[in-house]
Amino acid sequence: MEALIQKFMVFLEKDKRLSENTLQSYRRDIEQYINYLHEINLQNISKTNKATIISYLLQLQKKGRATSTISRNLASIRSFYQYISKNKIIDNDPTSGLESPKVEKKLPQILSTQEVELLLEQPKCVDLKGYRDKAMLELLYATGIRVSELINLDVTDVNLEAGFIKCSKGQRERMIPIGSMAINALKEYLNKARKLMIANSDEKALFVNVNGGRLTRQGFWKIIKQYKNQANINKDITPHTLRHSFAAHLLENGADLRSIQEMLGHSDISSTQIYAQIAKNKIKEVYKKTHPRA
Question: Of 132, 134, 228, 243, which residue is the catalytic one?
């Protein structure tokens, strides 16, 4: 079974070109499902059926798993069965016709423009770390890129003269414009800090940690939590918050959804439309607060 899971993971990585985080989620979901099959003495995947999968999902529910988690598990299991069915390892796909539990979509947390300003003011350019952190936060808000994309940027992905950065994922590549504030912060970091922070001159990473190597996602998470606390912002800020705020603020100021979709790198515009709902909610809120007959 382990060999079969490994082939499936290679398929997801090479053919579907999924990110490392997504691949890990798939592997975790499938391995937990296989462990469940072993617990109920089902060693042969071809002997499973709809009832097997439903009983597993019910077990997850009894354990208190969120609806979104159960839905994601089913999506992973469905992909696995589709793969082994297509490769003639099983005759029928037992997930065919199985509906995912309906997940209530929560609107993402965003910061107001004032809160963004407050957060971006926190890193002080008095030491190497301050220059780096200022550049990272300015770049995140200027471009709306994912944290995984931020930490994977190389120096060669930045063109300060033309005013854009290049984000690559497999064969997909997108160019994202950056504003003057982010450009200035990056110039300061590159000229005054990075060359003193890198462990060796061959380092490609744009943003490096105190040891001179590429910064990690966990490292960035600690940094943003630190500045959130310093700024006394009461909202629950995650590394994705600046990405959500970037998109929502663009929409509020007249950008169209297609342009935002392109900059965010969403393959489907339905993922971008959630920001339109945020904008509608804000309009309603403003109306209720300001209209004399609201």
Answer: 243
Q: Does the global pTM surpass 0.90?
A: no
Structure tokens at 217: 């996602």
CB 164 within 8 A of CB 177: yes
Q: List pLDDT tens digits, range 170-213.
A: 667 888 889 899 999 999 999 999 999 998 999 999 999 999 99
Least confident of 36-50, 142-156, 238-252, 253-267: 253-267
Q: What is the CATH number of the domain that holds 14?
A: 1.10.150.130
Bigger pLDDT: 168 vs 89: 89
Residue 172 DSSP SS3? strand
Answer yes or no: do 65 and 126 share one domain: no
Contact 175, 143 (CB under 8 A): no
**Whether 243 is catalytic:** yes
Clarify whether 169 is annotated catalytic: yes
**Residue 72 among the catalytic residues:** no
Report d(CA 163, CA 165) in Å as an integer.
7
Crossing angle, helix 50-62 and helix 67-86, to 10 degrees?
160
The reply to whether 141 and 256 lie within a common domain is: yes
